Automatic annotation (TrEMBL):
One of its GO terms (biological process) is transmembrane transport. GO terms for cellular component: plasma membrane. It comes from the Bacteria. Belongs to the binding-protein-dependent transport system permease family. This is Protein lplB. It comes from Paenibacillus agaridevorans. It is found in: Cell membrane. Keywords: Cell membrane, Membrane, Transmembrane, Transmembrane helix, Transport. The chain crosses the membrane at residues 66-87, 108-129, 149-175, 196-216, 256-280. It is a multi-pass membrane protein.
Length: 290
């Protein structure tokens, strides 16, 4: 009974900050008036969602969101796995811990700091990257105002910040593999590469599947906080994602009903993607979250 009592603070927190605010979803089905409140606003049914699906601007935002998320999954998802496998092969603990500390550190920096750092590094007037370009006779590049470069910049900075931290989960999975398996494989003549392929990767597979399903579920969350600190009106064409679109429409233009409808659409699709990803994982590789 005492153990169940310990759940009460967590359940209260979950109810107050996760479930109680869901009452505000009603706004998505109204023409919300901030002065009239929810009870005094006109009910419009699915009109906001019809407007959403007919909006050319939203279609562009949805395309940007999917492209940035897919880039992050295909390029950045495998990197922490590779890092974990490589660090697992390091035998000198001092060197291993030093490398881990260095690659973990960017995670603890806020996106405001990281954006400011890269804005200075990539600045067309005085940034170190453009100074190097000038030294070779090239013209300076305005990275943060280029539609052709902005998505690549978003993916690169996200990888630089999070790849070391994301590797922790896979390093923990490797730590749970019995060392006797490696010893038996070594006695049978398996080299380090063979052991990595036949023992380490299969041992990590449940964790890889779990993280991949969760990553699919957040497909429409392309890094709102990151992009908010980095983008500007010149790159809305390629950089505006659902999260930033909701921010601009809700707080910027005070179109609360439409922005709530967009957010609800985002959450519903994310939930559906998790279910589909879990079903496909269970069907094809026999592993799933539930």
């Amino acid at each position: 009974m005492d153990m169940y009592m310990l759940l009460i603070p967590g359940l209260i927190f979950l109810f107050l900050f996760k479930y109680a605010p869901m009452y505000g979803i009603i706004i998505a089905f109204q023409d919300f008036n901030i002065f009239g409140g929810i009870s005094g606003s006109e009910w419009v049914g699915m009109a906001q969602f019809e407007r959403l699906l007919q909006s050319d601007e939203f279609m562009q935002v949805l395309t940007n969101t999917l492209l940035i998320s897919l880039y992050k999954i295909t390029i950045l998802f495998p990197i922490p796995i590779v890092i974990a496998l490589m660090l697992n092969e390091v035998r000198r603990m001092f060197f291993k811990r030093t490398i881990q500390t260095i690659i973990y550190l960017p995670h603890f920096l806020s996106w405001v700091i990281i954006s400011g750092l890269f804005i200075n590094i990539l600045s067309p007037s005085g940034g170190i990257v453009n100074e190097i370009i000038r030294s070779f006779g090239g013209e300076p590049i305005s990275f943060f105002t280029s539609n052709s470069l902005f998505r690549s910049l978003v993916v690169f900075t996200a990888g630089w910040k999070e790849m070391g931290w994301n590797a922790i989960v896979f390093i923990a999975a490797l730590a749970g593999i019995e060392q006797e398996q490696y010893e038996a494989a070594a006695i049978d003549g398996a080299g380090r590469i063979r052991q990595m392929w036949s023992i380490s990767l299969p041992g990590m597979l449940p964790t890889i599947v779990l993280m991949f399903i969760l990553r699919i579920g957040s497909l429409l969350e392309a890094g709102t906080e990151q992009i908010l600190t980095m983008y500007n009106p010149l790159v809305y064409e390629t950089g505006d994602v659902i999260g930033t679109f909701v921010y601009r429409m809700g707080l910027g233009q005070q179109d609360y009903s439409f922005s709530t409808a967009v957010g609800l659409f985002n959450s519903a699709v994310g939930f559906l993607l998790i279910i589909i990803g879990n079903m496909l994982s269970r069907k094809f590789i026999g592993r799933s979250i539930w």
